[in-house]
Amino acid sequence: MSKSVISSDKAPAAIGTYSQAIKAGNTVYLSGQIPLDPKTMELVQGFEEQTVQVFENLKAVIEAAGGSFKDVVKLNIFLTDLAHFAKVNEVMGRYFEQPYPARAAIGVASLPRGSLVEMDGILVLD
After folding, report:
1. For residue 114, what is the DSSP state?
2. Which of 11, 14, 46, 83 has its CA 20 to 30 A from that of 40?
C-alpha cells in the first residue's frame, strides 16, 4: 500500500519530525494539532479560543486531504484540565453532526508550548 503526505499552509507547519497527516489507502491519519495560529505560529489565548483554533487547524488538513469533518471516524482529545470537557463538547458541536465520530478525551499533565488542548484523529475517505 502506498502512502502520501498531506499538508496545508492553512494549518501550522510541523514543529518536529512529523507530517500534518499521512494518507494510506483511503484512510488519513491526522497528527496532533495544538492551537497555533498558522500565520504567526503563536499560541492563541483562552480555552475556548484554543479549542476553536485546534478544530480550524484540523479542518485545514482534513480539507487538504479531500475530506470534511463528516469523514472523521476517530477523534482523540488531550486536555490539561478535564474541567474543560463540557466546553470541548460545546465547541465540537459547531463542527460535527451526527453520527459523531468515536472519541476519547484524555487528561494529560502538559502539552507542547503550554497548550491547554490538542487533538488528533483518523478519517476515511470514500
Report:
1. G
2. 83
pTM score: 0.97
Number of domains the chain contains = 1
- Cell numbers at 35, concatenated: 492551537
Q: Which domain holds residue 36?
A: 3-124
DSSP per-residue letters across 45-89: -SHHHHHHHHHHHHHHHHHHTT--GGGEEEEEEEES-GGGHHHHH
26-47: b or e for each residue (b if 16 or more CB lie within 10 Å)? eebbbbbbbbbebeeeebbeeb
How many CB atoms neighbour CB 21 within 10 A? 26
Tens place of pLDDT for every residue, the chain, 126 residues?
A: 789 999 999 999 998 899 999 999 999 999 999 999 999 999 999 999 999 999 999 999 999 999 999 999 999 999 999 999 999 999 999 999 999 999 999 999 999 999 999 999 999 999
Helix or strand holding residue 102 (H, E): strand 102-107
Provide the CATH number for the domain around residue 27. Answer: 3.30.1330.40
